[in-house]
Design a protein that fits this description.
Enzyme class: ligase
Oligomer: single chain
Strand content: 15-25%
Largest sheet: 7 strands, mixed
CATH topology of the largest domain: BirA Bifunctional Protein, domain 2
Strand order of the largest sheet: 1-5-6-10-9-8-7
Bound molecules: 3,4-dihydroxyphenylalanine
Keywords: Aminoacyl-tRNA synthetase, ATP-binding, Cytoplasm, Ligase, Magnesium, Metal-binding, Nucleotide-binding, Protein biosynthesis
Subcellular location: Cytoplasm
Family: Belongs to the class-II aminoacyl-tRNA synthetase family. Phe-tRNA synthetase alpha subunit type 1 subfamily.
CATH class of the largest domain: Alpha Beta
GO molecular function: phenylalanine-tRNA ligase activity
Low-confidence stretches: none
Number of strands: 10
CATH architecture of the largest domain: 2-Layer Sandwich
Mean pLDDT: 93
Shape: rod-shaped
Structural class: alpha+beta
CATH superfamily of the largest domain: Bira Bifunctional Protein, Domain 2
Length: about 350
């Protein structure tokens, strides 16, 4: 092997051993740099004759080109290797399952409220919503519960700021104020008919929502739900209440095997008044009377506060506890579970 072939060979080896682009640049300097081996050889040409220069120059040039080719090949190899390593490091496993967005669902009490609205909706009842901060007038006075009435002490009321000493604001203790609010709105929207001495369309409404009392144990929560019902017309009787409510309970619990009992009771806004108890004839709750609602024929004073003549309009109202209905339907024994927000409990209803 001549001297130049040996030089090209040692350059190839030097480049081959360079493990990084920086090493490679150092190796390049040894052969192709300003004071590198090829430059030295070129300098040696100066002392040669013209013909010798031509011949010698040509072979040195060949050697130089061979070294440059080896350098470029190694550069490319190192760049390829780096890209390979990067691709491996950043590899995506497209067969991995995706991250799932957790599926939400309705709260069990919301499911019950939807059910209640659906069932009463099918019987022609509207659904009304009203404020949770209520005035003393709508919550008590208009419902035939004057200031000094003992019935006010039946409710442990949260009072809130605003209003006056005589007419304080409070968190509604029941959904019954919606009877007045909705009826007054209904009456106002049929004012022309009433003024003409004609009969207005019946009021048929339910009003579900949150209610508040100072109370907390396994069956009471300071925030709980109620659903009010009201049906007022020229000729609505207690019999209608029985039919409607029996139908509701049997549909809600999906059981014809269920009996109702209307037990005499007292509420200031109804006369007569009744607690409604239900009894399953089969299943885990069979044989026990379970209280599900208060009800009664709307008191004449309340009908008057709705803006109607109690000699012409009559009807019934009821108020039930959707939380309790949910407990009965699903066999839950502690009301607080509904409001603790524990996803392990809540996800069971999806
Ligand atoms: N508001 C009553 C309560 O919270 C429940 C109730 C009883 C509502 C009789 C009514 C009714 O509409 O007629 O205890």
């Amino acid at each position: 092997m001549n001297e130049l072939d040996a030089l090209v060979d040692s350059a190839r080896q030097g480049f081959e051993q360079a493990a990084t682009p920086a090493d490679l640049e150092n190796a390049k300097a040894v052969f192709l740099g300003k004071s590198g081996r090829i430059t030295e050889l070129m300098k040696g040409l100066a002392s040669l004759s013209i013909d010798e220069k031509k011949a010698r120059g040509a072979v040195i040039n060949q050697a130089k080109q061979a070294i440059e080719a080896a350098l470029n090949a190694r550069r490319q190899a190192l760049a390829d290797a780096e890209l390979d390593a990067q691709l491996k490091a950043e590899a995506l496993d497209v067969s991995l399952p995706g991250r799932q967005a957790g599926q939400g669902g309705l709260h069990p009490v919301s499911l019950t409220l939807e059910r209640i609205e659906g069932i009463f909706g099918s019987m022609g009842f509207d659904v009304a919503q009203g404020p949770e901060i209520e005035s003393d007038w709508f919550n008590f006075t208009a419902l035939n519960t004057p200031e000094d009435h003992p019935a006010r002490s039946m409710h442990d009321t949260f009072y809130v700021e605003g209003g006056s000493a005589k007419a304080p604001n409070l968190l509604r203790t029941h959904t019954s104020p919606m009877q007045i609010r909705h009826a007054v709105q209904h009456v106002n929207s049929h004012r022309a008919l009433l003024d003409a001495g004609e009969t207005m369309p019946e009021i048929r409404v339910i009003a579900p929502g949150r209610t508040y009392r100072v109370d907390s144990d396994a069956t009471h929560s300071p925030m709980f739900h109620q659903c009010e019902g009201l049906w007022i017309g020229a000729n609505v009787s207690f019999k209608d209440l029985k039919v409607v409510f029996t139908d509701f309970c049997r549909t809600f619990f999906e059981s014809d095997d269920l009996v109702l009992r209307f037990r005499p009771s007292f509420f200031p806004f109804t006369e007569p008044s009744a607690e409604i108890d239900i009894q399953f004839q089969s299943g885990p709750l069979a044989g026990r009377w379970l209280e599900v609602a208060g009800s009664g024929q709307v008191h004449p004073n309340v009908v008057r506060n709705m803006g109607l003549d109690p000699e012409k309009y009559i009807g019934f109202a009821f108020g039930m506890g959707p939380d309790r209905l949910t407990m009965l339907r699903y066999g839950v024994n502690d009301l607080r579970l509904f409001f603790d927000g524990d996803i392990r409990f809540l996800s069971q209803f999806q």
